[in-house]
UniProtKB/TrEMBL annotation:
Family: Belongs to the uroporphyrinogen-III synthase family.
Its EC number(s): 4.2.1.75
Recorded superkingdom: Eukaryota
PANTHER family found in the cross-reference section: UROPORPHYRINOGEN III SYNTHASE, UROPORPHYRINOGEN-III SYNTHASE
Metabolic or biological pathway: Porphyrin-containing compound metabolism; protoporphyrin-IX biosynthesis; coproporphyrinogen-III from 5-aminolevulinate: step 3/4
Name this polypeptide is given: Uroporphyrinogen-III synthase
Top enzyme category: lyase
Domain Tetrapyrrole biosynthesis uroporphyrinogen III synthase: 22-248
GO terms, molecular function: uroporphyrinogen-III synthase activity
Gene Ontology biological process terms, A to Z: heme B biosynthetic process; protoporphyrinogen IX biosynthetic process; uroporphyrinogen III biosynthetic process
One GO CC term, this protein: cytosol
Reaction catalysed by this enzyme: hydroxymethylbilane = uroporphyrinogen III + H2O
Keywords: Heme biosynthesis, Lyase, Porphyrin biosynthesis
Source organism of this protein record: Aedes aegypti (Yellowfever mosquito)
Amino acid sequence: LTQLMMKKVVILKSESDNSEAYPALLRKHGFEPIFVPTLDFSFKNLDILRDRLLSPYKYSGLIFTSPRAITAVRDALDGNRLKDDWKPLENYSVGETSSELIQRTLELDTKGQHSGNASNLADFIKTDLYNKTVTLPFLFPCGNLKQDVLQNKLSEYGYSLDCVEVYETVPHRDLERNLVELFREGAEQPGYLLFFSPSGMNYCASVFERHKLDINGCRIVAIGPSTKKAIENKGYAVHRTAEKPSPEYVVSALLDT
């Protein structure tokens, strides 16, 4: 790989509040980021979610594992504030970005944001609640493609979730066109592909297969263990894994290659 190619990094993630943080930090370290949005989302069941949000006394707390779930709660509240009765409950989230977003949009403090993924969050919750009596379920707004890791682990630890499916994940409308353009014959191949989610990987893989695009010249970096597994399931080798979905972790995974 030439020096120039090595510097091209394709960011395959959905557009979100912190999307700009990645290119900014990558450029600072001399990489050339190319942002390719992978996923789109459509919201649903917000009326059901609204009813649940009006009854904090039925729950032990709220759990967030994606930025879309936060947006869904905000939209379900429809301009009203989240009831104060949620504040003293046991509320959790994955990722620093999410916890800041929850604080900003819902004025709610959450714990466990440093855990980085659902599996680690479940372990954190178990430790955090070690001496507490928790009998009520946690309200868990989630997407149609959620992994069952959190639910399985928490139920093993004796806690239950009330899952409300509040968004659908679909491939981004421009994904196919962008990938075909990126890997067209004669085009200079990027040095790295960064995959941020299992669903994003699966949608990309079907485009690679359909158009017989050769990505073997690229080093693949996975964000988190479930994304790594999805990439390997499709038969691709993972070069590095960033343990947490933060720009700093991603850059250190790239610098480590």
